[in-house]
Amino acid sequence: MEMYEAAPQSLLLDLDGAAAPFWSIAWQNQKVLPSLVSRQSNVLDMASEILMAEPVCLIENTSEQFMVNEEAVQILSAVTQPMVVVAIVGLYRTGKSYLMNKLAGKKQGFSVGSTVQSHTKGIWMWCVPHPEKPEHTLVLLDTEGLADVEKVDNKNDTQIFALAILVSSVFVYNTMNKIDQGAVDLLNDVTELTDLLKVRTSPDLDEVEDTADLVSFFPDLVWTLRDFYLCLETDGQLITADEYLENSLKLKEGTDQRTQAYNFPRKCIKKFFPTRKCFIFDLPTNQKKLAQLQILHDDELECEFVQQMQEFCSYIFSHSMIKTLPGGIKVNGPRLENLVMTYVNAINRGDLPCIENSVLTLAQVENTAAVQKAIAHYDQQMSQKVHLPTETLQELLDLHTASQREAIEVFMKDSFKDMDQKFQKELETLLDAKHDAFCKRNLEASSDLCSALLQDIFGPLEEAVKQGTYSKPGGYNLYLQKTEELKAEYYQKPRKGIQAEEALQKYLKSKESVSATILKTDQALTARKEKMKKARRQAEVARAEAERLKAIQWENQRLMEEQERRHQKEVWQMEMNRARMLQEQQRAKEHRLQEEAAMLNAKLQAEQRRLTQQILKWHMASRSFSIIVPHLKMMNIGTFFSPKR
Description:
The protein is α/β, with parallel strands linked by helices. Among the domains are: 56-109 and 118-200 and 224-353, Rossmann fold (3-Layer(aba) Sandwich); 355-528, Signaling Protein - Interferon-induced Guanylate-binding Protein 1, Chain A, domain 1, CATH 1.20.1000. It is built from 20 helices and 12 strands. α5 runs antiparallel to α12 (333-349) and α15 runs antiparallel to α16 (475-492). The N and C termini lie far apart (172 Å).
């Protein structure tokens, strides 16, 4: 028990991560083979891990009332592989459980009794991997013995018989010794099935169509003859077991009631079981060892019996087909579970176990699951692809259309018998609702994003308004200019969604009162400013006029001073001119005098030179020249004629 409790939790999960009920139950009841503990790393397909160490009761038969065992239901719900269902029916104490244990490859499993009391009650199930078909599950169903003397009503046998046929793909009919009228009469329960089993619910449908549908639903028949002691010979010719079976089912000629009574069960068997096979089994060992048959080794059994058992198992493994419903629907664990529940509930209610109703019920379950799977796929695709808010409504519509198409493909892959496309229409309605919800969420996401973005962008402007930044003349134009700048910034932000413009206009409309207040304040302050400006202009005009008058006065003063300066200058100039004229007159006079003096001096000098020359001549003429010259110098005749004198 400890090794099971220490098993990894990963083995308790299925592919989707959901808890696998079968594992938890099987672990608690030690129903899982120890070899599974080492398979922690290979839980890729939950169905491939469904190995049962021993059978479990599938349908309990308590007080001749059927009840589906919850543990078996949990096991079936975990098997996703296609199923080959082999059911065995026969008289009690005829070795049915032994045959099923051999098919399971085990010596023990289904209860094998050695007394006259029936051991198997109800229908027991053993799911094992198919030995020759990978990724398939072989389901073995062992039924309680028919004609049990302890039973109150044989109707219960017929119900067991019916359930075995309804759920199996191979029906093993186990009888003793030979095919006799008793064995055929026992299988004559099939004739009752023509009344018990109904294909369709409408009573007015064509009976031929009913029968054809019913036959297509029936399993293959494998008739096993235990402890066979006859010679397979007819008219001195050896025959096969199959020929022996067909000979036993031959019809007699005649129309009398007795012949019809003989032929009728055979007709039913041949009609409802078109595929038939027969196996004979010799006595496995001597009478004393039969009580320990399940623990005997092959070398302790008769060689013929061992060979016959091998041929039987080989045929079952190689020829058994997957349980298939009308419409070619292959049965897996959940579908088999639904079939069993449907048939048992119908029988317990006293209703006819209608095949069509079971298929419709299964279709209801399968299609509902297919719808849920498609919706889950749609949700997954949309959650991965859609990033709200979308830039445009068309973008969301394109993503919805693509995801819707994939979801419908998922539904079509898993659905069957969706009459009038009821479930597909339901899926489309749900997808439309999903689309509407996404559109609503898209609007809300866009609105929320835009509101936050507007608050982020226009928040500083609102704060500036509160601080009175725009409460000044011209503030309204500045406010409008800033608003336009922020609007441009808002438009530049990507992926605002389809509410971008509406959110902006709504925001701007909500600020119209603020804008109006700023405009009113601006107008009042502007008028006041204009009044003050006019007053300033008037003051400036007056000041300018005063300055102009002052300038004129200053200019007049300046002109007067300038005129005075000019007068003084003119006076001075006149004086200067007079002085200059006087000077010039003086200089002219002096110049004239100088010229006259020069002329006189020149005359004197010339006279002096003449006199000198004359004196020299005299000197030379006279010896007293030397005396005359000094006297001439002393006389300084030139100085006497100087202008300064």
